[in-house]
């Protein structure tokens, strides 16, 4: 037994409204998006991209008594908040829309998804290089942190100064090229004398950079205001209660990452999952959250799926448990692996739960063959990492109901670990007759017999 010190549940800053009030505010921000999502989900062929097709835009504006611009903006927000999903030419209600009126957590997650996508909600100014826009987006968390820590209005010049410093740091991190062995910086005398035009251009550079930063800051503040994260006053900005809460949550995630209870934060996905294998579900999820908070979502999901494609069945199951903690941002990547036989059953279960199905009923989405494949894969994980008694009890979870039927379908399913699983099961089972039948099945699979 080891003694684990658990970090007490953090409390939001003093003055933060209760979750029910935050959810009410989030519902208000997304009210038009919810109306449009309900309309789109009940209307055939509303269009597959934003903006809506012209005829659908007109129909929605008329039906909902909104302007075309309001419909277009609401449609974008509905998609970004996960209120509506597109399947070909058909819009379907997302799971958050179905839970919208009864589940405050679903509402807040939907709003946070919109908050994270602020730079998509409010288009960047035209004529600005994509790299400059990306640097500004990457620097905005620092701006938000200052607003959150200030607990009140912050002047635009102070925010601009911080944005400029952060952008300069990012540029230095990316552009600084250390000199290699044997290389030296060019001597000052080797450079040609500066002309008056050179000096003028050099002096104009910082001024243009400051103007660009000011333009990008205005764009960022307007975009964050558009999603309800802050309010703009004369020369100042203030976080809304929703924005303050969201920034606090993200800062807490960073703190969790810095205080990983079991110390797996620096590990690869495979080592982290192995470290969590013997934890109970709650502490394991805490580890997953800490590990995920220290990485970008895209890289974390890619690493977890790479582990799931490996030979260790235990890690495959644990990788999808970690992906459940990721939630919505992992949905496109999980859906993309449905074509991979070894991952398909896990992906189908993940998607079923993500779409709101009860975990106990999620198995219904699997075909008989997929359920059998998953049974063998789980048995392989137990054989490799579990106890023999657990492998025997695993027989009860088979969909076939009888051992002879199970053996027939296991032989046909083609799992690469079938022989090893059957041999391990035969060795573990206390019933000699059943063990003999399982060994016979293992021999038949091994030799290719019927």
Q: State the separation between the terminal residues, measured CA to CA.
A: 48 Å
The H-and-E topology, N to C, reads as: HHHHEEHHHHEHHEEHHHHHHHHHHHH
Supply the number of helical segments: 22
Shape field: elongated
- Strand percentage lies at under 5%
> Helix/strand-derived class?
mainly alpha
Helix content: 55-70%
Please give a structural write-up.
- This protein is 63% helix and 4% strand.
- It is mainly α.
- The relative contact order is 0.06.
- It contains 22 helices and 5 strands.
- The protein starts with 18 loop residues before the first helix and ends with a helix.
- Mean pLDDT is 79; it is low at 1-8, 45-51 and 176-208.
- The protein has helices at 19-29, 31-41, 54-64, 68-80, 95-99, 104-116, 118-121, 130-150, 156-175, 196-226, 241-258, 269-276, 281-293, 297-308, 313-326, 331-336, 344-354, 368-385, 388-393, 403-413, 418-428, 432-447, and strands spanning 84-87, 90-93, 154-155, 230-233, 236-239.
- A hairpin with a 2-residue loop joins strand 4 and strand 5.
